[in-house]
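FIELD: query
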Amino acid sequence: MHPPKQALSINRPRLGLSAKLLFVTVLFVMLAEVLIYLPSIANFRRNWLHDRIAAAQVAALVLEGAPEDGLPEGSENRLLMGVGARAIAARVGGARRLLSLDSMPPPEVSRSVDLRSLGWIGAIEEALAVLVAPATMPIRVVGEAVGGADFVEIVIDEAPLRQAMLTFSGNLLLISLLMTGLTALAVYIALNALIVWPIRRLAANVTAFEAEPENPRRIIEPSLSADEIGEAERALARMQATLADELRTKKHLAELGLAVSKINHDLRNMLAAAQLMSDQLIETRDAKIRRFAPRLIATLGRAIAFCEATLAYGRAAEATPSLRDVPLRLLVAEQAEMLGLGEGKKPRFENRVPAELVLPCDPDQMARVLTNLMRNAIQALTRAGAEAGSEPVLTVTAGIENGSVALRVIDNGPGVPERARANLFQAFRGSVTPGGTGLGLAVAAELVRLHGGAIALEPSATGAVFSVTLPARRATGIDRTPSSVIASAAKQ
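FIELD: result
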């Protein structure tokens, strides 16, 4: 059984930001040293060879002034030993003059180096070749001459050159390591002071604030730094202050809501008892009491409904919808029957939802949405009647629009007052009926949002049109709903 990924990430050894910065600094400094080393070692080799050519130039001057029969015996060996060469040759006046330790011709060479035309790329390549693959035989070096000679060439062993290059490389390595250490230490200290320590302070503050978000002492005190970290500290301080205030406010409201819920619970029981006793007033013989009794009972009913709505809204958040394929026309018909709508009853009800239309939704939650919208329409039509003296009609339509299911609850009543439109779907602020709480529309909007849809009041010439747009299943069941069926249903 494998441990969860989160546990693995927690137990994994963590490389701190300081260590990462130190590692990156050392890496880049060493890379810079490598880039510096290549031209340095090439230049060292060039200078070393130039020194040998310079000594050979002196020998060339000696050869130039020597008599035709050559130098005195022993002078040639001493001259070659001073240069460190096996042979020295110079072209003087078109004739090639040669000094050699051996009486035989100059030995065969492994490679030739012409310092007169040696570029930087070639110098670097040849220097690396000396270190990686040294020559087993002498090498030939050609350079400029002074005086009357055309050029000077020498034949030398490469071993002394390679040894000198290794010594130079070792010294350069020691200096590079020292520079790398000092640079990395300086950068490490600077980055820790400028970045790492302020970030650690931010992280520690966020952790402490997470443990006690309502404690004002946990709010970070921004530094006076004008850089990005200073801006982050000031932004964090503002965010923490706002969040702490919001949490304190929400906690206060939660405690207040709990108290109100308890009061409403007891008040609802008392009002229910008062309503039961008030029902007996209708049977009294006193005409005045019988005239006011229905009003009293209706007022008590509204008070009880307000208490129940407040208790329902104060409960925990709505559950996540459990989606099922629901025939929308049948669901609308069930809610209409529960609300007392039917043939011969007012207002007249028209169900124009296509029978083939299937909606993926939570049937219980969608039933509550329909009940709230249809009840509001019934109350508006019952209270104020229809516009222009026409028959009160409540109509529910639905269809596929732009890949979504569009459901509309339409009435020909007085419409929604302008003062209620701004806060239409906010609890206790968006009531469209006198004495209402506005919780019905707020609950409906919350349930529609849980389904991933939207609810709105559409503009209309008469009455009110509430539209609910919900995601349609991408399967062929809904998409195959013929547009002719929807069009014919809308014309009924």
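FIELD: remark
The chain has a mean pLDDT of 76.
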